[in-house]
Design goal:
By secondary structure, this protein is of the alpha/beta class. The chain has 2 domains: about 325 residues, Rossmann fold (3-Layer(aba) Sandwich); about 100 residues, ANL, C-terminal domain (GMP Synthetase, Chain A, domain 3). It has 12 helices and 25 strands. A 9-stranded mixed sheet has the order 2-1-10-9-11-12-13-14-15, with helices on both faces. The protein has a 4-stranded mixed sheet with strand order 4-3-5-6, covered by helices on one side. The protein has a 4-stranded antiparallel sheet with strand order 16-17-19-20. The longest helix is centred in the N-terminal third of the chain and has 17 residues.
């Protein structure tokens, strides 16, 4: 199969591919840059199957790299520059990339935890990109999932293609579309936009970071037709705009990453935002089920329809399929589902046994097959679209010399869906306070994992076996 960027450049060379703070690139220009970068990677010794890590954020260079790795057969590993140093080091050790860029040039890595090596030469003249296989790995996207350990979700070109086709069928795909990309490209919600746009021949409007004022201005002035938000982003945009309605050019706003609070949906509906609440996850290449275009918005988050080619079922703990209207774990099957986790065969076997992806999320299917997401089947906290596992936060806090015991859980939050909260037992006589622990946590944890609420308690609720009864932590709400 010919690389998508070359096929698109041959068909619509003058169509706008990318608009950003650095200017505008047409598809012919983007293809030329991707080919030059692919030649650079090959000259540096990158071969098919090698991982190429990028700590770039929402940078046009990452868009070029997305297409360049397809031309070389390398596997893209996009990592957020906002990761804490320990988190970044863990991801790099796990992926063992041969190439790395942080925006100041290219390097070949030595041992994966050193982030070192000789600089790669400037781009060489372009070469033609060879064909690639749909089953080949396109990217490894990291998610903390439900174990707290970094797990790299392997996504193939077939996954990306199936997701793009399903999204196009669900939303409609027009070459005149301008898709606002303010979600991190290191997450599947952002990365999937790149595949969808090149396949449709539409434009990506890339924002370096999420800024609600800049987003509001872009919606009004830049002809945005589709946008992707998590609930926390939508809440901030609504704060900026108040009751001002979006222009008619905006035809769809995908809202995913976490269940949206009902008051937020009600506010958006009153301002006539074309919201399409969406359920998805990295392991299914972003979208799984979405409210159909034109369907009435439900504040309970229900009415979501699976994308074409995606199957859903609700099962109990023994894998027995539940009847419509009853709650159970959401299972997903289809061409969008990952072939597995990077170098984690046991985790892959557990999550993908029998061809069904076990999501760890609870939901209900109605008699017509529409989905309503209920919550998590495990302890994972979803805050602002980010996954946080309590065990990881607890391990960091327990390393503080003044902490005798700690429990972490999620509390409902009107903006972020959930916020990370900590219940701390001090050692006798310790004066440690929340501000001290927050500073300590920030040295070890990425910002969204740091607790936003703290409560100091004499003891934690534990059962006879000593296991923390996490759901009882909320009986005493932490101070904010």
């Amino acid at each position: 199969m010919k690389a998508w960027i070359l096929e698109r450049a041959a068909r619509t060379p003058d169509a706008i591919a990318l608009a950003s703070g650095d200017g505008t690139l047409r598809y012919a220009e983007l293809a030329a840059r991707a080919q030059a970068l692919a030649a650079t990677l090959r000259d540096a010794g990158i071969v098919p199957g090698d991982r190429v890590a990028a700590v770039l954020g929402n940078n046009p260079a990452l868009v070029e790299l997305f297409h360049a790795t397809a031309l070389t057969g390398a596997i893209l590993v996009p990592l957020s520059p906002r990761l804490s140093p320990p988190d970044l080091a863990r991801h790099l050790r796990d992926a063992s990339p041969k190439g790395l860029t942080t925006g100041s040039g290219w390097k070949l890595t030595g041992p994966p935890d050193t982030v070192s090596g000789r600089a790669v030469d400037e781009p060489r003249p372009a070469r033609d990109g060879g064909p690639f296989e749909l089953e080949a790995a396109a990217a490894i996207v990291y998610t903390s999932g439900t174990s707290g350990e970094p797990k790299g979700v392997v996504l193939s070109y077939r996954n990306l293609l199936a997701s793009a086709v399903g999204a196009a069928f669900h939303l409609g795909a027009l070459p005149t579309d301008r898709w606002l990309a303010c979600l991190p490209l290191g997450h599947i919600g952002g990365l999937a936009i790149l595949a969808r746009s090149v396949l449709a021949g539409s434009a990506v409007v890339l924002h370096e970071r999420f800024d609600p004022i800049a987003v509001s201005r872009a919606i009004d002035r830049d002809g945005i037709t589709i946008a992707s938000f998590v609930p926390a982003m939508l809440a901030q945009v609504l704060e900026v705009r108040g009751t001002t309605q979006p222009p008619a050019t905006l035809r769809a706003v995908l809202l995913g990453g976490a269940p949206a609070p009902a008051p937020l949906l009600e506010r958006a509906a009153k301002a006539r935002w074309p919201l399409l609440p969406t359920y998805g996850l990295t392991e299914a290449c972003s979208q799984v089920a979405t409210l159909p275009v034109g369907a009435p918005l439900r504040t309970d988050g229900g009415g979501l329809r699976p994308l074409p080619g995606v199957e859903l079922r609700i099962a109990d703990d023994d894998e027995r399929v539940r009847q419509p209207g009853t709650t159970g774990e959401i299972h997903v099957r289809g061409a969008t589902v990952t072939p597995g986790y990077w170098q984690r065969p046991e985790a892959s076997r557990q999550r993908l046994a029998g061809g069904w992806l076990r999501t760890g999320d609870l939901g209900v299917l109605d008699a017509d097959g529409a989905l309503r997401v209920v919550g998590r089947a495990d302890d994972c906290i979803i805050t602002g679209g980010e996954n946080v596992h309590p065990a990881e936060v607890e391990t960091v806090l327990l390393a503080h010399p003044d902490v005798a015991d700690v429990g972490v859980a999620g509390l409902a939050d009107p903006v972020y869906g959930e916020r990370v909260a900590a219940w701390v037992v001090r050692h006798p006589g310790s004066p440690v306070d929340a501000a001290t622990l927050e500073r300590f946590a920030r040295t070890q944890l990425t910002h969204y994992k740091v607790p936003r609420s703290w409560q100091f308690v004499p003891a934690l609720p534990r059962n006879a076996g000593g296991k923390l009864q996490r759901r009882k932590l909320g009986d005493e709400t932490p101070a904010t």
